[in-house]
Specification:
alpha+beta, Rossmann fold, OB fold (Dihydrolipoamide Acetyltransferase, E2P), 2 domains, five-stranded antiparallel β-sheet, 9 helices, Mo/tungstate-bd_C_term_dom
Amino acid sequence: MLHLDVALNRGRFDLEAQLDLDGGVTGLFGPSGSGKSTLLGILAGLVRPDRGRITLHGEPIYDSASGLCLPPHRRRIGLVFQDSQLFPHYSVKGNLLYGFKRRPAPERRFQFDDIVDLLALRPLLDAHPRRISGGEKQRVALGRSLLAAPRLLLLDEPLAALDTNLKAQILPFLQKIRDELKLPMIFVSHALPEILHLTDRMALVGGGRILAFGDLGDILMGQGHGGPRPLGPDNLLAATVEGHDPDHGCTLARCGPTRLALPLRAELAPGDIAYVSLHRGEIALSRREITEISIQNQFAGRILRIESKGSGVQVWIDAGSPLVAEITPRSARDLALAVGDTLYCLVKTRSFSYLLDRAGNPSQPASPVRPAQPPP
């Protein structure tokens, strides 16, 4: 469906990216400045790379070797930004019809009334952008893009400018677009819970490179093509629920060979997959297992790498799933750590934070997290 192989140099920023997609919804996840929005700009025709080739449904839209670079309006790629960028002098209906009227009838993929109803826009048709909320503006922007009959829809952090309540209003509409229209989408975000809501594949982006790409579950477990690298302060674990222990206030789960006591989430059924984050500073390390202690999670792991970072020391551990812990230099000296040593990781139950379960149920907002893997 989409093949991209491009390079771009803009002063101190270099981008080299290769990506092949066959449809569905793909998430681009990474920190600010990593190159996510630049990639979307290249796809949409707003940014011209220095060299490379892009094809969409087998048709070239950019090819540096032949000098081909289709303008944005000929690519039939929709782009929705975090700020809706509606035409202020048009009504909602006028904004929706802008691209629809300019598309020849045989090329129109969706009918006007169908999109209006899908996005619940009918009560807003006569209103002007200044009179509607931020969430409503984003729904109008989505509708305008869809009515322009795109072959691919790009979403550049469309929820970033919205508060928590408005995000909760928009996410169901994005899910409806995914499920009912079957339109290929690329969804950019630096908030992992949003990625988990909508996508089944994820590309990790950093420093102008695609660091890893694959199915969502493989990426979360550190198995995606290319091998992920740390992009945030947290570890991310995909845990399989085994049951609950209400008397002790915990949900019992397993991550690889490691059994975990997580905060109680009684609505999760055995076999469900729950994604939990764990800040690297919440992992205590010990040379031996400790008894008569209130901490419920103790599991052994082997040290893969030790790295000084600023005022802390990062310890990369294989505990069945990759983890990174951060301790003080004094603690590192006292423990006399060495690569290959076996350690015990001690984690309080309340240190785990739920992000999302496989059924799509969100938890409290969390900072961007990802699985930790030792750098090469």
